[in-house]
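Subject: Interface between my chains keeps coming out wrong

I've been trying for a while to get a sensible model of this assembly. When I model each chain on its own everything looks fine, but I need the whole thing in one frame so I can look at the contacts. Pasting all components below, labels as-is. Any help appreciated, I'm running out of ideas.
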Amino acid sequence: DTGVSQDPRHKITKRGQNVTFRCDPISEHNRLYWYRQTLGQGPEFLTYFQNEAQLEKSRLLSDRFSAERPKGSFSTLEIQRTEQGDSAMYLCASSPPSVTGGIGGYTFGSGTRLTVV
Amino acid sequence: ILNVEQSPQSLHVQEGDSTNFTCSFPSSNFYALHWYRWETAKSPEALFVMTLNGDEKKKGRISATLNTKEGYSYLYIKGSQPEDSATYLCAFINSNDYKLSFGAGTTVTVRA
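Reply #2:
Try treating it as a single job with all components included. I did that and got this:
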């Protein structure tokens, strides 16, 4: 297992189009998180899964955003009808079943950078 | 929204010099504090998970201290090297919802 992988690394889309990102977590980790980072800010929590159950969604996650984690393995984050304000780095992280992320913290992917033009 | 602040926002260090920077967080409902290093085009990498007041953790030339009563943590880099250039993020976990709240980061540039 080489860590958390995210695909694609970069995505440029036109306003109004739908986009989908994928995250493959560390296989032993049952928790999976999505964060969004915009310029000059720290990562902001969007949602998290424990196994296949989506346990929490941030108010930042409007109804244009949907996340899934079928079978508790990989996860997808879809943004419908993209807007320029959706341009950001979307980070995925996974962790073992510990609220602190375990002694090793969360393991992050490299992120998907979305640019909406 | 929990207020996690990091200062300075950026700093430049001469190779070989030591430096430190701060993360401040709410002193109530503390559960844990994380430090991450995020190099350009890479993944944020966990440096430390700190849970106890007075904790001091060390990883090579990087160390961190934690004061939960006053709500701050320092990260120290001793004898900075160019490979230490990165953005250092701290993240606070509170005991209400156990979510990670990040600061905006301190970007360190080490000049050779």
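Reply #3:
Confirming on my end. The mean pLDDT of chain B is 94.
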